[in-house]
Structure prediction request, 260 residues.
Amino acid sequence: MSDMLRVEALTKRFGGFTAVDRLSFGVREGEILGLIGPNGSGKSTTFNLIAGLYEPTSGSVQFQGREIGGLAPNRICRAGLARTFQIPRPFRKLSILENATLAAYYGASEPVTRHEAGQRAIDALQLIGLPVDAAARIDGLGAAGLKKLEMARALATRPKVLLADESLGGLDEAEMHQAADMLKRIRDERGVTIIWVEHIMGVLMKVIDRCLVLDHGELIAQGSPAEVTRDPKVVEVYLGSDAQDVQDQIAARQAAGVTR
Prediction:
């Protein structure tokens, strides 16, 4: 099966600093791919290159066989690739429904009416578990609710690929597991391919199919969660003393027969 998204020799330099260095990987349709690494490893820069916030210094980003590297973010979104951000920044003067409707209207791959955009917004909000009442305001949302709204706005654009950037930040343990289950449901029920950047390893590893590990902008390991967390270099540069805990959680998941 050919890759839905393919990154080849992707490089981004800021002056004399190389944030991403000849990075290459593919993402298969229907996959949940984890992207991990220490702070400063190039994860968010990679997302910004794929989503169009940064223009590559060199290299290629191909989505469904089409080169998208260097295109404007709105064109990439309308091609079928949406992203969330670590820190949600909704339009606070708009309602929850209006925020999602706005995303659906301007992120659609084809012209839609306001009514059609509203229906797409309602569909996304219902999937995520947020109110669709036109009077529901953002002020009533806590950290988990704002993360959900960020996800709903991305889903309202009807993406084929979703880039989820640290969706667990600021959540308590129960909310983290709910958010992880939600990402899996988005893939299973809507067929959305997902690339997920995350630091909360135990929760991430229970959902993803495959994992990439970056360090100083370079790919240092890739494979199944079990393979990656046992890689000596990954343990050295990233997991450290947490390695055994993460490995135990993966083993428990496998023993319980948890599969895709």
The chain has a mean pLDDT of 90. The radius of gyration is 18 Å. Residues 1-80+201-260 form a domain with the Rossmann fold fold (CATH 3.40.50.300). The beta strands are 5-14, 17-27, 32-36, 58-63, 66-67, 81-83, 161-165, 193-197, 210-215, 218-223.
